[in-house]
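Annotated sample (chain length 127).
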Amino acid sequence: MSPANTQKLISACPILFAQTNHFECSDGWFNLLYSLSSNIEHAIKQMPTEMQEQIHAVQVKSKYGGLRFYMNHTTPWIDGAIDLAEDLSNNVCEVCGNYGGHKNLDNWIVTLCDRHHNQELKRRKKK
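Output written by the structure step:
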């Protein structure tokens, strides 16, 4: 994710991202991540102070064309929010955030819209 979008997420959710400052995914998922993170941050702020300091994101990445959002501790509500965002990511282009689907690029599964998939195929043919 771009440094600017990374900073926006960290600034908006300082409790959630107190231990994490790196996102291994593209900017197309920024809105999805921002919504998920803001909701989790709000849920954490509703917890007792001593619990707030113990809950944080561990890793955020793309794997098999989908978002993976790992935390050190969760609640059933947070688990549900993460599951929803991970499911939604399977239909959101990793590059632009528009509707997309899973595509195979040299045995790597990615989630791209048709436009970005075609651009990537053309770019790889030029090599």
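Annotation: The longest helix spans residues 30-45.
Annotation: Residues 3-90 form one domain.
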